[in-house]
Amino acid sequence: MVEEYITVSKVTDYIGELIGSDSNLKHIFIKGELSNVKLYRSGHLYFTLKDDESQIRGVMFGAKYKLKFKPKDGMNVLIEGKIEVYKNYGTYQLYVSEISKDGIGDLHRRFEELKEKLNKEGLFDESHKKRIPNFPNRIGVVTAANGAAIRDIITTIKRRWPLCEVILFPSLVQGEKAAENIVYQIKRSENYNLDTLIVGRGGGSIEDLWSFNEEIVARAIYECTTPVISAVGHEIDFTISDLVADLRAPTPTAAAEIAVPPYGEIKNALKQLETRINLAVNKRFDENKSKLDYIVSKKLFINPREIYAPKEMLLDNVCNRLEHSSKSIILVNKSKLDIVKNSNIFKNPEAILNNQKENYLLQISKLDVLNPLNTLKRGYALAKWNGKVISSSKDVKSGDELEVEFDDGNVNTRVI
């Protein structure tokens, strides 16, 4: 029987396929101690991860740009990655995606738990965020007295907005008592009539920044009546204080830039506005002056008598006509009055009364002739039906009851 021999590469490939197909090794969490740590200029990290009984080689590509700390021999770490075969040497090794110091995992858990708790209470809601003043007169800073953060903040504020006063509230920013100290200084700052309060520190590891992840600090920032800017660490760092503050700045220097306006730019903008206002005022002045000159140049203003001279003439004419008409009316009526005075009627008013009396008696006699009652006195009678005088036999029919009126009374009769 002839044995079939295979190459080393095929054996290695076969083992690699077995390891690569194992779901437990595709995404693995492993912890241990670093040794033989080498960080190359390329940014790749090579190391050995070991414990008391075994060891495994590992590699992290681009570690220089991903890690927030510098790996060292003897450092205990937590690693997330996968196991694959390195074909060139026929060995398996650890390919790392995430690496952190051992113990940081617990801090991350505490961070997420507190974050969820405060979020449910509404401490991160935008509705509670206060507006940062545009032109502050006084800014407070809670940070270490001798750190780079306070120097950067003061330098930036004085350069951008020299009109602003900066008050330091010196505090511990890491260690066991740091959180209590930060809370004390935040509450103390409330007595200084500040426009804005910056709370923060320079960069560091997650342990160094942990004071700004403490619940008492978060609640002190939330309850602070002064608008608070959180400026903890570098841009990649994120803390509970950043979430609860009214505004988060990526760095202390950035916080100072956010807190104050650029004096030079404001000054230039004001100059530009002044120039634009002056131009607008001068333009409006020239336009109105031209209008005024045009109006003043009219004859009306040169000889104002022209306004009322024609009206004066018209008034004189109307007055003359009125005077002439009134005199004419008076003369006509005076003539009529004279005629009346010279008439016989005016001289003998009784003649007018006698004349009217005779006319009255004449009219009475005419009415008396037409009086139907005088007809009754001469022996005639009036026949009525339903109160109406009957003037024709056609107006009645057999059976109608009539009223006959005589001079001395009435009788009723029926038509046969």
Properties at a glance:
alpha/beta, OB fold (Dihydrolipoamide Acetyltransferase, E2P), Rossmann fold, 5-stranded mixed beta barrel, 21% strand
Description:
It is built from 15 helices and 14 strands. The chain is an alpha/beta fold and 416 residues long. Helix content is 46%, strand content 21%. The protein is elongated, with a radius of gyration of 61 Å. β9, α8 and β10 (247-248) form a beta-alpha-beta unit. It folds into 3 domains: 8-102, OB fold (Dihydrolipoamide Acetyltransferase, E2P) (Beta Barrel); 107-261, Rossmann fold (3-Layer(aba) Sandwich); 372-414, no CATH class.
Determine the CATH superfamily of the largest domain. Response regulator
Cα-based radius of gyration, to the nearest Å: 61 Å
The H/E string reads HHEEEHEEHEHEHEHEHEHHHHHHHEEEE
What is the correct CATH architecture of the largest domain? 3-Layer(aba) Sandwich
Count of alpha and pi helical runs: 15
Low-confidence stretches: none
In CATH, the topology of the largest domain is named Rossmann fold
Mean pLDDT: 88
Q: Quick one: biggest sheet?
A: 5 strands, mixed, barrel
Distance between the termini: 169 Å
Widest beta sheet: strand line-up? 1-2-3-5-4
Rough outline? elongated
What percent of the residues sit in helical stretches (DSSP H or I)? 40-55%
Residue share in β-strands: 15-25%
Overall tally of structural domains:
3
| Protein structure class | alpha/beta
How many β strands by DSSP?
14
Q: What is the C-level CATH assignment of the largest domain?
A: Alpha Beta
